[in-house]
Amino acid sequence: VDNAGETFEALRKTAKEMGAATNFSASEAAEGLNILAMSGFDASQSIEMVDDVLHLAAAGSMDMASAAGYVSGAMKGFNDETKDAQYYADLMAKGATLANTSVSQLGDALSGAAAMGSAYGQSAEDMTVSLLRLAEQGEVGSNAATMLSAAMANIYTPMDQAKKAMDELGVSAYDESGSIREFNDVINDLNEAIERNSGGNEELANQYKDLIFGKQGLAAFNKLVVTGTEKQDEWAEALARASDGAGEAAKQYATMTDNLQGDIDIWNSALDGFKVAISDKIMPTVRDFVQLGSEGLGKITAGFEESGFEGAMEAFGEVLSDLLAKIGEILPDVLTAGSTLILTLAQGIADNMPQVVSAFTDALTIALPQLAEAGSILLGAIVTSIVDNLPELLTAAVDIITTLANDLAEALPELIPQIVDIILTIVEILTDPDVLLPLLNAALAIVLGLTEGLLEALPELIDRLPEIVTAIVDTLVEFAPELFEAALVIIEKLAEGIVKNLPKLLSSALQIILTLLAGITKQTDKIIQKGAEIVDNVKKGFKQKVDDAKTWGRDMIDNFVDGITEKWDDLKSAVTGVADTISDLIGFSEPEYGPLSDFHTYAPDMMDLYSKGITDNAYKVEDSIDTLLGNVRNDFGRPVLSGTQSAPITSSSQGGTITLRLVDNANRLIAEGTAGIIDIINGNTVALSERGLASV
């Protein structure tokens, strides 16, 4: 249409200004303007109305589009050119403060009933009073508008029987001149007439109501008459003053935005306006690029259709050239804008730095005494609290440790079998080559790192070695009696356990030894080869470090000697104390106290048990040796032993000893044929192949 561009720009400018200055964004303002335009208002009318719409939206905590719909609906419904948007916004905002309804509910009801009210000559204020009467009884929004419209139709355009009933009651909806009376006055007159004519007869009263209103109008009438005339007059007077001064909606907007949330909303709106401004600046350039891209795709497509990939690539080169040319056009402006922005920021910081530093210094100077005092009070309170409660804290700590120790001691018999199962599982996992080899590599790296670190720290460690030794000795001297007492108790318990389980231990130990020997026999070549490599590496490493070793070795010995010399008297005293304690606890005869004070009662029994356990389990030793000999024989393909191939195992319980006699040539346990023995002599290796071991 004519002047459409100018109209659009005017609307857009209004939306941007509202977005920059209010708690609604430019986009939300545009939505409100759009609703007003859809309601039939032109651009100038919409721009004039939008401030009032915004105030109503803020008062009702709703969006601009909803507020615009309520205002435009009421204005169009009543078709009163003497009243503007502010009047209706103030009416809705004020009405919501008078009765049990909200701005949006009252706006919905008033805009919905406006056309019917206007048709029956009702003012917006009178209609608002009627809607407030319904709201007090819980009827709000569009439902209230529907009920009110039905009631008005029943009394202003009554059916024959309704008109007859009203005439009988002496109430008319029109005055003597034929003008429409105010709806609320008619309702109040009807209520009084029904009560008067029915004489307290409820059935007769309901007959009058039903004849006049029907079902829907009757519900509205029953709720309308609950509110007394005094309350109605108060509401009418308040609504008449709603637009005084700045207006109720504007006042509520100012109140609701005068807080932190309002400031945040305005900030967000201003930020949205800033983004719109940036968009306006770059939008032409973006459109140019989009258009250039569209043209380029058309060229590439045409080139492909004409000459295949060759044509497409040729067209692509042309498009890329155009694109780079476009970038070249805008690049100076972009760089200029960027440099200007940086210079402006720098200048702004420089201009305001003295004020910022001064303000910060002043604030810190003012607050420093209070901060120091508060910190002192807080620290003093913490220290005082710790000192006052230190005995209780220490007692609680001791109780916790004691409880944990007792619980652990009680649970230990049950935990040990589980621990054994865990250990066996871990061993099984660790023997997997996929697990073991990475672990060994990691362990080797750790050891090398620790070794390197230890060598670097060794001079300092040697310097402080006397201090460490002195501290250890002092501690041992101070707690020697308790330590030896605990050690003897542990030894006693271990001895009892060993005596009880000695046969099993001997059998298991022998099995372990035999298994190890068999494994070593199978891996002899590898062991010798690795041993040679290790020795060779040790020699090389030793040669590289020999000078350093001499130096720090001399330093270590010198420091060690100096430390012993300085602390000789303390060490002599400590040793004397330890010796006295040992003498008191053990002595060369049965002590008077301690775990060995009754040694004479259980020593003979222990020796008898020890002897009996060995005698009873001698067959296990014999079976294990036979198994070993059989394995070795199988491994080497011929008998291992010469001469007598087996020998009896004899035992004697005299003195708790056992004598084992093996074959005469047991020194040839490992047979001939072991290859790969490496002899290292002065750094030269000589492989001695096809030679056996003389003995093991």
Walkthrough of the structure:
β1 and β2 form a beta hairpin. α3 packs parallel to α5 and α9 (160-169) crosses α11. Helices cover 79% and strands 1% of the residues. It has helices at residues 4-21, 26-38, 43-59, 64-78, 85-95, 103-119, 124-135, 141-156, 160-169, 183-198, 202-224, 229-240, 248-257, 260-430, 433-522, 524-566, 568-585, 599-616, 618-636, and strands at 677-681, 684-688. The radius of gyration is 54 Å and the shape is elongated. The longest helix has 171 residues, at 260-430. Strands 1-2 form a two-stranded antiparallel ribbon. The protein has 696 residues and is mostly helical. It is built from 19 helices and 2 strands.
Radius of gyration: 54 Å
The portion of residues forming beta strands comes to under 5%
Written as H for each helix and E for each strand, in order along the chain, the element string is HHHHHHHHHHHHHHHHHHHEE
Helix count equals 19
Helix and strand composition category: mainly alpha
Terminus-to-terminus distance: 115 Å
User: What's the overall geometry?
Assistant: elongated
Provide the residue-averaged pLDDT: 75
Number of strands: 2
**Largest sheet properties:** 2 strands, antiparallel
Flag low-confidence runs.
Answer: 635-696
| Order of strands, widest sheet | 1-2
User: How much helix, percentage-wise, in residues?
Assistant: over 70%
SSE blueprint and pairings:
Elements: H1 4-21, H2 26-38, H3 43-59, H4 64-78, H5 85-95, H6 103-119, H7 124-135, H8 141-156, H9 160-169, H10 183-198, H11 202-224, H12 229-240, H13 248-257, H14 260-430, H15 433-522, H16 524-566, H17 568-585, H18 599-616, H19 618-636, E1 677-681, E2 684-688
Antiparallel strand pairs: 1-2
